[in-house]
Design a protein that fits this description.
mainly alpha
Length: 342
């Protein structure tokens, strides 16, 4: 291997790792607040990429139907238990954003909007799915054990994969880049879209740091992550914190899909492997430490890049095998911990 090839592989690894870092941050955030291992996180990425590609091509994405069904289901489910004077708030929280997103897509798609408008619409369609899924699939299980929540997450992942096949079909899609152009740096040809991926990862990390440190809702999320019972005692609504965490995961996942779409062809089930690599990075960080998750994600991307060069048929196995020593070390070093089922 020459130094030029090594530099190219590192470049690819850093770009992929930046994308995995975004997903790892979502997984750590959601797990800390809700104890849910968000296996469906990859589906938000795939749906965001496919929705963006369809909108950029001037087509109405089938994800609009999925969003409408989720919104109506969440509203009617909540209406069964919500008092009459709370229906207006329920309607606003479940129907308002999906209605605006669907209307915007129907109006603007025929005008063949540019990549930036299509990207905003795609995020607007896919991101609201996350809190709706939390209302429907996870909020009723808020006090269940972590194992039950994991099983529920697997079920939601399988359901979304099937719905993705129904909505988008088996064919893959690829969207246009947000910005054309590239720069040359020695042996490296760096495309503008790759810079957007890395820049977005840095921006999200900075935004999360400010959000958790300087805002009341961010501190409420931190309190919920540290102690759910204590958070409830001081008046923090843990269900609202869960919805907020899922909303942030949906926004980051959908945005990641938009960034990924111009770089590779995305299929309805592409999100699973992408999300799983983010999960590997989150495990390296103990599902708790955000900076460690980012560093681990960059490492996962570089390992994947060099594995593709040396042993392409086994690159996925090599990436996932890296988690085994970490699991062994954590199992040997951790003492017995009683699960908090509250």
């Amino acid at each position: 291997m020459t130094p030029d090839i090594a530099a190219i592989l590192v470049q690819d690894g850093v770009v992929n790792g930046a994308l995995y870092a975004l997903l790892a941050l979502c997984l750590v955030l959601v797990f800390a607040v809700t104890r849910i291992v968000l296996i469906p996180q990859g589906e938000f990425v795939a749906f965001g990429a496919l929705t963006y590609a369809a909108l950029a091509d001037g087509h109405i994405p089938a994800s609009l139907t999925l969003l409408a069904v989720l919104a109506l289901a969440a509203f009617f489910k909540g209406a069964l238990t919500e008092p009459a004077d709370g229906l207006r708030h329920l309607a606003v929280s479940t129907l308002a954003v999906p209605t605006v997103a669907i209307f915007g897509c129907l109006v603007l798609t025929g005008l063949h909007p540019g990549p930036w408008v299509a990207a905003a619409l795609a995020v607007g369609v896919v991101a609201p799915m996350a809190p709706l899924i939390y209302r429907l699939g996870f909020q009723p299980l808020a006090r269940a054990s972590t194992l039950v929540l994991l099983i529920a997450a697997v079920g939601v992942h399988l359901a979304l994969t099937g719905l993705g096949l129904l909505a988008f079909g088996p064919e893959g899609l690829r969207g246009p880049p947000l910005t054309e152009g590239s720069i040359t740096l020695g042996p490296l040809l760096i495309r503008a879209q790759q810079l957007w991926v890395v820049g977005a990862a840095i921006a999200v990390m900075a935004a999360l740091a400010v959000y958790f440190a300087a805002t009341l809702s961010g501190r409420a999320l931190r309190a919920t992550a540290v102690n759910r019972i204590g958070a409830r005692l001081v008046g923090i609504e843990t269900a609202a914190a869960g919805r907020r965490a899922f909303t942030m995961a949906g926004l980051i996942g959908a945005g990641s899909g938009v960034l990924l779409s111009p770089l590779t062809t995305v299929y309805y089930d592409s999100g699973f492997l992408i999300g799983l690599k983010g999960f590997v990075a989150a495990i390296f960080a103990g599902m708790a430490v955000y900076p460690a998750a980012v560093i681990a994600a960059i490492g996962v991307g570089i390992v994947e890049s060099f594995s593709a060069f040396w042993a392409s048929p086994f690159k996925e196995a090599i990436v996932f095998a890296t988690i085994i020593p970490v699991l062994i070390w954590r199992s040997l070093s951790a003492g017995a911990v009683d699960e908090d089922d509250s």
